């Protein structure tokens, strides 16, 4: 009887330990390389959103050029830190730039692309929706 009990313990204990480790690993937040301080980019996008909310799309288009310039200048420093995160932000940036630079930009579309860009700047691991 002892041998059966010992055999059960020797089987159940490692299985339980590995299962617990697996559950912990699957629920742990995914670690991605940090892209550094993105606050200057977030500030510019907040400025652009404020201009759009006032209905001044031409000023918003000019201000987003500041963002584009800063983002392009920072590429060589930021991109190697997390290429996937950088690509997610860059794709959301391109969508916002395109929306604002249309010949007749739609405030609704611009707001959506800016909101998506803000979300990706806050969480670069998630691609823009």
Describe what you observe in this structure:
- It is a single chain.
- The protein is mostly helical.
- It has a domain at 39-122.
- 75% of the residues lie in helices and 0% in strands.
- The chain has helices spanning 2-27, 39-53, 57-78, 83-100, 107-122.
Computed Rg = 24 Å
In helices, the fraction of residues equals over 70%
Straight-line N-to-C gap: 60 Å
Question: Secondary-structure element sequence?
Answer: HHHHH
| Structural class label | mainly alpha
Average pLDDT score: 85
> How much beta, percentage-wise?
under 5%
Oligomer: single chain
Number of helices: 5
Q: What features would you highlight for this structure?
A:
129 residues; mainly alpha
Secondary-structure map with pairings?
Blueprint: H1 2-27, H2 39-53, H3 57-78, H4 83-100, H5 107-122
Q: What's a quick, concise take on this entry?
A:
The chain has 129 residues and is mainly alpha-helical. Helix content is 75%, strand content 0%.
């Amino acid at each position: 009887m002892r041998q059966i009990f010992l055999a059960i313990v020797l089987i159940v204990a490692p299985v339980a330990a590995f299962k617990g480790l697996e559950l912990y690993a699957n629920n742990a937040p995914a670690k991605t390389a940090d892209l550094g301080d993105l606050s200057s980019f977030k500030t510019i996008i907040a400025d652009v959103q404020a201009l759009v909310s006032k209905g001044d799309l031409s000023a918003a288009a000019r201000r987003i050029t500041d963002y584009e310039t800063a983002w392009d200048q920072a590429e060589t420093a930021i991109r190697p830190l997390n290429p996937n995160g950088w690509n997610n932000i860059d794709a959301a940036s391109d969508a916002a730039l395109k929306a604002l630079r249309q010949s007749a930009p739609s405030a609704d579309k611009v707001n959506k692309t800016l909101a998506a860009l803000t979300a990706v700047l806050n969480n670069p691991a998630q691609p823009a929706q």
